[in-house]
Design goal:
Cytochrome Bc1 Complex, Chain D, domain 2, 42% helix, elongated, mainly alpha
Length: 171
Amino acid sequence: MFDTMTGVKVVGSFCGALLILLLGKWAAEGLYHVGGGHHGEEQAYSIPVEEGGGGEEEAEPEQDFATVFEQASADAGERVYTKCRSCHNLDGSNATGPHLDGVVGREVASVEGFSYSGALVEVADVWSPENLNGFLESPRDYAPGTQMGFAGLSSVEDRANLIAYLETTGG
């Protein structure tokens, strides 16, 4: 079944494919020489580039939270809440994190049966919309040492909508 002629064909095919690959690479390098001109020659055309960081876009200033919160939508906040759902419940039972029903206006670290990190108690007394906004933007920056592993919500609109939704939940 397997004779010497089959082995010669396999080795010959491999060598032929390698030869075609190497010749193709050599031809491509000749046509499209990478890395500028040959032996010190200058490029035929150079694209001028402005110095001084002119290409950087200026970041749009973030809107004032109070202004955005006045126009916040609880319906849009319900969609944002899906990011919280894996660790927090709205039915009064604790999960990985404490329940969030009635959280707006509630004292910080006041849910019975949940063990809070001390970092939260030090930063605020009550979960006002402003305190929730700061915490939701970046929990680790707002309350250094918190055990909450959430990275935060960068959009002020998302934070305002989420807080508006949480205001509608029970207490």
